[in-house]
What does this fold into?
Amino acid sequence: MPNDSDLADASAQGASRPWPIPRLLGTGTLGALAILVLSFPFLTDTGYLLSTGVFILNYALMATGWNFVGGFTGYISLGHAAYWGLGAYATAIMITRLDMPWYLALVTSAAAVAVIAVPVGIAALRVRGASFVIVTIAFVMILLLVFQSWAGVTGGSSGLMVPRAFDVLRTQHHQIFFYLYAAALALTLLVWWAIDRSRFGMGLKAIREDEDKARALGVPTYASKLVVFVLSAFFTGLAGGLYALWFGDLDPVFQFSILMGAYMVLMALLGGIRELFGPVLGALVVGVSVEYFKSEFGDTQFHLVATGLLLALVVLFMPEGLIPWLRGLFQRFGPRASSIREVSAGELAEQVEREHAVDEPGSRS
Amino acid sequence: MSGGLFLQSLILGVLLGGLYALMAAGLTLYFGVMRVVMIAHAAFLVLAGYLAWFFTTRTGLDPILSLAVTVPAFFVLGVGIRRLLITRLKPATMTMMSVLLTFALALVIEGLLGFTFTGVQRRIRTGYSSANFEIFGAQVAVVKLIAFVLAVVALGSLWFVLKKTSLGQALRATIQHREAAELVGIDTDKVAGYGFGIGLATAAVGGTALALDATIYPSLHWHWIGPMMAIIVVGGLGSIPGAAMAAMALGIIHAFLQVPLGATWAQTVFYVALFGTLMVRPQGFFGGRLAQRF
It folds into this structure.
């Protein structure tokens, strides 16, 4: 079927685009947002607001780490809290038992989490879809059991204290970790962006849309999935390590909670898993709402209901996420979409079905 | 391990395995008719347990009588959930998104239970709650036996419906091959709705049986998700007998390991079985064609 793409010159896309304004606009907005984020610690000296900011950056880092698997391959992991918790406990144990300096412990523990993720990935990535989700949940449940029972090393249910890395006032402590988290987030986003543009990323996205076809086209599916799985665990583990240094008190029930894994999925889906900044936007929305619900409803179970409802609404009505939805709102004012664009397997199926319905009126799929 | 202890573990394992088998049957039904993995099944189990407890504390009647209300209610609820929620998902991402959707459902149920009944642990008290009887030196609680009998009756009725009625025939046809079932004139949409309803109705029975014997609290369903997931992966979600067999085997192994390892470490057997199965046979031991690609 012909559309505007066939009429437009394909080489006009990309480098010598006639309209550089959107791109400039994008870079400008990005710069402004970055400045806004970086100046946040100077705009407020309220400890509560600062700690909320650190919490949201922690969420953003976890969700972006999650999105290496979820966004590229479409494998949805509900148990990513496992790597967050492992990173936190590894950092804490390296500092308290091995007397490592904090930065060394942070990097070593993230690497250790990546190593642990290799056998888990080998087992989990053998299955797809729902089975994969199940395996990831199972992994976090095992870790919860182990860390609760193995009290000699992990402190068990009574928790594990991490000595503070910096001997400063509370507010400054928050500020330092705000920037540490921001730096880690920038690094993570950069890696995600680089993969997104690469040939490797193209293969991964092909897996997301149709794994069998991707394999038939020569994408090394299993190895590619494993590489992003391990990368994802690394960055999520990094978030956990930073959390241990910042918060200073670890409890297995909180570190290895399925709810935390569900937050990661919710944040990434809400923002848009195909988007670089999707998880960050989702983290902002979810982080603010979580804080709001905690302050408003306290210790009741109401936040579970809210999280569940939000997740259900996103899955039912906005599975593509906020960013594509917003873009759709604005695109009707801009130039028409180019012909060479990515189409998800779901969209393709719908398109085919529509054409089918036109071909044979009255028939059901 | 002495003879009495061995027998006791075996009996406990069989009794627990019966409950797992009932759970597995429900999961297989959902998966069969809709390709949906119902994470919220355990949450519905706990919900049914709470309803039974509420019924007994208010009326003073036997908790089993609450089934007369909960089973039809859960059936209608199941039909409604499929109609209003599951069918809205896009077919291309159905299985994956259904996990998230039912997970969200589980969170909502847990939250609402905590909201309504608070997090206090509840226990149903009946005249036979603490009664025991002895067979060949093994002590068996009466409530465990009653729970087992409930599970067996539910499984038996399920078997009867599936094998002996025309609805069951339509259900099995829909599970085996949806398009072919449509070609011979089965309204698969309606049948799938009934399948979902029946699946949820088994959760009502399972939950009541569970509440007879155990202390219930809102977050209890996480405890059941382990066995549930192990059954899905080990059994492979192909056939109800296959899943039931996996459930029974895991229940017995779990009961035997409880003696030397204690309750917490014995629980890990489900996860070990799960990962072991993935390494050896990713499609599960009984599943075959259906389970391979979900």
In short: Confidence is low (pLDDT under 50) at residues 290-294 of chain B. The first strand of chain B starts at residue 132 and ends at 135. Chain B touches chain A through 49 residues (CB under 8 Å).
